[in-house]
Amino acid sequence: MKDFDIFHEFAHTEGGGERTPEQVVHEVMNRDVSASLKEVMEAAHMAAPNLAESGEDTSESDLDEEATHLYPTADETEAVYHAIEREILSRMPEHKVQPSIERVQLAMNILGDPQNLYRSVHLTGTNGKTSTARMISALLRASGRKVGRFTSPHLTTMRERISVNDEPISQAQFVAAYEDVAPYLAMVDEHSKRSGGPAMSFFEVLTVMMLAAFADVPVDAAVVEVGMGGKWDATNVINADVAVITPIAHDHEKWLGSTLAEIATEKAGIIKPGSFVISAKQDPQVLEILRDRANEVGAVLRVVGEDLHLVSSQLGVGGQVVSIQTPAALYNDIFIPLFGKHQGENAVLALAAFEAFNGGREVEPGIVEEGFRMATSPGRLEVVRSSPSIVVDAAHNPHGARALAQALTESFDYTNIAAVYSAMADKNVEATLAELEPVVGDIVITSMDTPRAMNTEEIAQIARDVFGEDRVFVEPSLLDAVDLAVERAELNPDPAGSNGVVITGSVVLAGAARDLIKH
Fold this sequence. Notes:
- The protein has 519 residues and is α/β, with parallel strands linked by helices.
- Helices cover 45% and strands 16% of the residues.
- The strands form three sheets. Strands 4-3-2-5-1-6-7-8 form an eight-stranded mixed sheet, with helices on both faces. A six-stranded mixed sheet has the order 12-13-17-14-15-16. The protein has a three-stranded antiparallel sheet with strand order 9-10-11.
- A hairpin with a 4-residue loop joins strand 10 (319-325) and strand 11.
- The longest helix is centred in the middle third of the chain and has 24 residues, at 171-194.
- The relative contact order is 0.10.
């Protein structure tokens, strides 16, 4: 049932007369959608011929069908998609808005709370969220479910953030998802501004689109990663069956607090009454906060190292073979096509979350095998070229860099590693580089195409303090930086081992490197 309070607010304050909710939506939509977007939409609609009903439904979902009927040609769809993308990007970015749940809550309320039409798994933590989310999604798919997944940030395209069955939604589906909610976004924007607040942010708009689109598909289950924190994150309008807490460390301190206790308190906010909570190993004070929250709301907490165990992990061709112990069963010799012990630990969280989603019962071995076999994690210890060997990893804080360094040591036989590095201005570059220094020889500092990036020379100066003057090089062009890193890695070839290049420091850099090298 829609909350019509906001409709009545507009009906009584716009133009003096009493109007229906539908009229309010129409007027607010026409006024608030950007002129450039309206022009593109109108041009596309004029070019689109009226489609005759064929009587045959060939679409995979309601969203597919709607998208097909809106813009029948690829060029029209692409034009509208890019206009919508520009409109969303023009909104306040993720890192400049104090996390809030109110605007998304209002939008969901107006839409009739579509997020309640499917079950969900909610993930927070500092590192490992996306990899764990992708594994959970793969396990759910292996069990025969249609699965929506929401992760951030994206590597290449905004559409990656909203995926169905591990495939980003198409441009046409993205357009349909936006147009479905645009009138209501405009209403919430105006309502917030009248109250002295901001318009909906980039992340909030994508969250609303995602939650509504998953209901339209419809999905059987959604795997949803927070944008930042937990309690006040836009995604926390879902009432998840399972909350997953990956390792909590220092990050986003401006918004979440400067102490682990403050950060953990924010992240514990996704734990809902009666749910299962699956947590990684945590600092004792973090675990105490999670335990207190679980007890407070009657949630069942399971923790790696207490209730869940990575029994063994052995390097295999193209990944690793792990054995995992949960309260329900011992799962032996599972192949995971991902490198690094931390990915084995993420697999423990994923399998425990999937068990919990199924009521805590043992999972059939075939589903476990198939699910993990399908698992991928682009931009996370991803080998994007074999000769020379180039690995891309999105590690952007000390905790992530520590896991990367350990994986480079344990999972690869490199004897000489050169790194390409860049970072955002709000990151702890010195501590991150200190984690990488013992395993990296030379490091090439490069630039990123984003205003959030730290100045290249500023990073280089920090790197010189950590690595020493003779091991630090600066090359603003990413292409030239990769070429230089390959050259430095191959200076002292070792017949007993191999040389490698790792590109790391930011999701933005990882995405740019993947595009550059793969295409």
